[in-house]
Amino acid sequence: MSNAYIIFERISVQDANCIAGFTYGFPAITHFLGFGHALSRKLSVNQNLTLQGCAVICHQHQIHAYQPKEHRDFVFAQTKNPPREKGKDNKGREKATITPPIIEEGKMNMTVSLVMACPDLNLSRTAEINDLVQTIMNFAHQHRLAGGSIQHIAAIHVLNLDQQKLSKKLKRLLLPGFVLMDRSDLLASHYHTLKQQQADAELIDAWLDFSALKYQAQPKLKEDEPEATDKTEAEWVRLDKPAKGWLVPITNGYKAISPVYSAGEVSNTRDSTTPVCFVEAVHSIGEWRSLHRIQQVSDMLWHYRYEQDWYLCQQGEQAQTEAMANELEEGVVDDDFNDDFLSSLN
Q1: Which of 195, 280, 298, 338 is the most buried (most CB within 10 A)?
Q2: For residues 31 and 86, what is the distance between their CA atoms, to the nearest angstrom?
Q3: pTM of the full predicted structure?
Q4: What is the pLDDT of residues 5-43, one digit of tens each?
């Protein structure tokens, strides 16, 4: 097994989906793993190669939103699609242009770089590598990324280096950029602390401490005022997050909320040959970390993890391969999972 990696340098994406579960601002990590999974399936047939995991480095982003008035919430800029639409009357004659409906959605433009492992790669000749790069480039432009259209890819690199040299090479190629890291460990730790302080605390309370903007009133006591009253002046102070770092709420997978239905049992599905299961989004905590702080490239790769009703994207040494993800599509469930994290969710 080689140490080869495929680097997609600065992918410019237009109109990507920026809503993920309860959150907005950046696509869910499942979008990027799905993009890599789609490429892997094509490469496995065309080149007998597979891609494993996906690291996400963000260079630029612009949400399609505006602020109607000062001190008001931002709202998404909505569009009417299609821009023009003609109808026909009862006699089949065309009438004047009618107003199309507004499609409520959140979109964004972004420039990201992706890093994926390719353990089956054993190419050494420059001509073979160039042919592979062109093949991957063609496949990538055939797909959408996070629901958006790929406008441009600066370059695709195939690197077969050890972790130390690869890390230095990535920093020269992709800086400045910020890597999305999994910090579910902070969520589990903070939830454990809350449970010790409040027996009725729930996991959503711990998650909101990271994701919500919270303020607390600090009373301004006078010299002759022993304690605060209703008439005491107060200063509203913003509360810090439970941990340091550029921490953000993210959507990192799904949890089943129904049994798995046989193919064709549920109407109006995408196809009639695949079993269907209804799910809800799973939320966690992520951290945007500058690329220069990353020591091992393997540490920033997201992978699929699943067990029973859980289907999660996480980072770590025990990450599952894309082959296991393919088994999931056929209904195979693996029992190896991070029990500590699951227990914190229950």
Answers
A1: 298
A2: 35
A3: 0.81
A4: 999 999 999 999 999 888 888 999 999 999 999 999 999
